[in-house]
C-alpha cells in the first residue's frame, strides 16, 4: 500500500575564499557554511485530534525530534508531590525527583502531556573558517569549526549502570535537602531506576544545546630559507609548533565533548595534542 505521507529535506551550502598580499603580509582565508532542515508536509498516521494539538503535531513542523514531558524543576518536598498531578505509575516519588507539568490541565500526568521537543540531534548549521597568514618568514595556519543548535541527551551520562562508565565531578551535584538547587535529581540505585519515579522517563530536562565553536588546529612557525642561500643541498627549513583542539566554546563542555555523536556515555572524547615540527626540504 502506498504511503500518503510526504517528507522533504532542503538546505544550502556556501563557501567563500579570498587571498591577497599587502606589502610583506600575505593572507588566505576561507569560510564555509552548510545547513538543512526537514519537514513533514503530511503524516498519514496523525489523527485530527493530534493535528489540532500544537504540542504533539508533527505535520508542518521543522526538525521534529520526538516527544517528552515538560519539567518544572525538581520536587522539593512531600507536599509538592501530594498537591500536584503525577503519573499513575509514579508511586515512589520522593523529593529530588523530576517535577512534570500537567500541560492539558486534566489533573494527571500521562501521554496527553507529552509535547514536541523540536530539538534535533543534527546541527541547524555547520560552519568553518580556515586561514593562512604570512609576514616575512613567519607563518600562521589555523582552522576553526563549529555548529549551530544541536541537542543531545544527558540522561545516559548520568546512569552509572556499568563499570565501564566514568564518574565525573558533575555527578556530585545531585539533589539533597542540603543542596535543593542541585543541577540533577536525587541519587537512585540502578535497580530502582524504573521503580515508580521519574528518572528514566523521557523529559526535556535532559536535552542540552551542544552547539560549539572549536579551534581545531593552529600552527605557528618560521621559515629559515633566507639563511640557506649558500646551502645548495638544502632549499628550505621550516620550524613550527602546532596544536589541535586547543579550545572550545560550548555550554556542554563541563558534561561531554560537543563533537560526540553518541548519547550512551561511552563516547571517547576528542584529544588535545601539541607538537613541534621540523621540515627540511632538499
Summarize the structure.
This protein is 3% helix and 38% strand.
Please describe the topology of this protein:
Layout: E1 6-22, E2 25-42, H1 48-51, E3 67-68, E4 71-74, H2 78-82, E5 98-100, E6 115-116, E7 126-135, E8 138-147, E9 151-153, E10 207-209, E11 212-223, E12 236-250, E13 273-281
Antiparallel strand pairs: 1-2, 2-7, 3-6, 4-5, 7-8, 8-11, 9-10, 11-12, 12-13
Strand content: 35-45%
Compute the CA-based radius of gyration: 26 Å
Low-pLDDT ranges: none
How many β-strand runs?
Answer: 13
Cα-to-Cα separation, first versus last residue:
69 Å
Q: How would you sum up the major sheet?
A: 7 strands, antiparallel
How many domain units?
Answer: 1
Please trace the helix and strand order, writing H or E for each element: EEHEEHEEEEEEEEE
Amino acid at each position: 500500500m502506498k504511503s500518503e505521507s510526504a517528507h522533504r529535506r532542503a538546505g544550502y551550502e556556501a563557501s567563500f575564499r579570498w587571498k591577497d598580499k599587502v606589502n610583506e603580509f600575505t593572507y588566505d582565508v576561507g569560510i564555509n557554511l552548510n545547513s538543512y532542515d526537514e519537514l513533514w508536509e503530511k503524516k498519514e498516521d496523525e489523527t485530527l485530534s493530534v493535528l489540532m494539538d500544537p504540542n504533539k503535531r508533527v505535520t508542518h513542523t521543522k526538525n521534529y525530534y520526538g516527544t517528552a514531558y515538560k519539567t518544572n524543576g525538581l520536587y522539593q518536598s512531600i507536599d509538592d508531590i501530594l498537591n500536584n498531578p503525577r503519573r499513575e505509575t509514579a508511586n515512589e516519588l520522593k523529593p529530588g525527583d523530576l517535577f512534570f507539568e500537567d500541560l492539558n490541565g486534566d489533573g494527571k500526568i500521562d501521554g496527553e502531556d507529552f509535547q514536541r521537543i523540536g530539538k534535533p540531534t543534527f546541527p541547524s548549521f555547520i560552519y568553518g573558517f580556515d586561514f593562512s597568514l604570512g609576514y616575512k618568514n613567519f607563518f600562521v595556519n589555523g582552522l576553526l569549526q563549529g555548529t549551530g543548535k544541536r541537542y543531545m541527551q544527558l540522561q545516559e551520562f548520568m546512569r552509572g549502570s556499568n563499570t565501564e562508565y566514568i564518574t565525573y565531578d558533575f555527578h556530585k551535584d545531585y539533589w539533597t535537602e542540603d543542596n535543593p538547587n542541585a543541577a540533577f535529581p536525587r541519587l537512585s540505585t540502578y535497580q530502582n531506576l524504573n521503580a515508580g519515579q521519574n528518572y528514566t522517563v523521557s523529559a526535556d530536562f535532559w536535552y542540552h544545546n551542544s552547539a560549539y565553536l572549536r579551534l581545531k588546529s593552529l600552527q605557528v612557525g618560521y621559515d629559515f630559507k633566507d639563511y640557506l642561500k649558500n646551502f645548495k643541498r638544502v632549499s628550505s627549513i621550516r620550524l613550527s609548533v602546532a596544536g589541535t583542539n586547543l579550545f572550545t566554546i560550548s555550554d556542554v563542555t563541563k558534561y561531554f565533548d560537543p563533537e560526540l555523536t553518541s548519547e550512551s556515555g561511552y563516547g571517547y572524547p576528542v584529544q588535545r595534542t601539541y607538537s613541534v615540527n621540523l621540515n627540511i626540504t632538499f
